[in-house]
Amino acid sequence: MWLDGLREEWGLRSRGALVSRLLDELSPHPECVGHVDTGIEHLLQAVMTPGDDRRDSLFQPDRPLGSLGAKVALARRLGFVDEPVEKALHALRKLRNAFAHSAESASLAEPSHRSRLEAVYAHARLNSLWGHLEAALASQPESSQGALDPYLRDYIQLITILVAFLEATAQQLKPFNPTVVMRFSGISG
Questions:
Q1: What share of the chain is helix, strand, coil (3-state, %, to 5)?
Q2: Coil, helix or strand for 172?
Q3: What gap in Å lies between CA 184 and CA 170, rounded to an integer?
């Protein structure tokens, strides 16, 4: 099963590509949430009829599904993510926006950010990968900046789990094939 493969990969390899990238960035950079945005886009594209152009214009910034918020809402309404995952995705979106618009150096340790993420982390800790990721991050050598901040560690684990499961879900979905189609000649089905 695909989950066993993920467990094996995270249990045996201490630095997956996404974890390495997040560790290298050492901040909740907007690009980190971009990985989640891409994952949810792949989830939605997995059930859609392919667009006419090479880049799906439906997902361009000025189009209906150009924002992370719109993608999250659609994924929830279609039943592809449950309510705790939806809340996690919206919390990350809000966090990304807060960091992007902060005039001073923002930190995950700030009470407003901690409170936004604590309920999300409580749900994410139930995921079987959480412990494997925690062990992988704990085995990393200290950087020149010292030990990995626990707030950043939890953030990295959350992003990694969301991306892994969004992509795994997308791989298991099939394009939607409606039983009824409206045509100018009438309704077929």
A1: 60, 5, 35
A2: helix
A3: 32
Q: What is the dihedral of CA 23, 26, 31, 35, to 10 degrees?
A: 30
User: Which CATH number describes the domain made up of 2-188?
Assistant: 1.20.120
How far apart, in whole angstroms, are the C-alpha atoms of residue 102 and residue 6?
35
Q: Within 13 Å, how many C-alpha atoms sit on residue 34's CB side? A: 8
| Distances 14 to 18, 70, 133, 182 between C-alpha atoms, Å | 11, 34, 8, 52
Confirm whether pTM is higher than 0.85.
Answer: no
Q: Decide if 72 contacts 90 (C-beta within 8 A).
A: yes
pLDDT tens-digit map of 57-72: 788 787 888 889 999 9
In three-state secondary structure terms, 175 is coil
DSSP 107-167: -TTSHHHHHHHHHHHHHHTTSTHHHHHHHHHHTSPPBTTBSPPHHHHHHHHHHHHHHHHHH
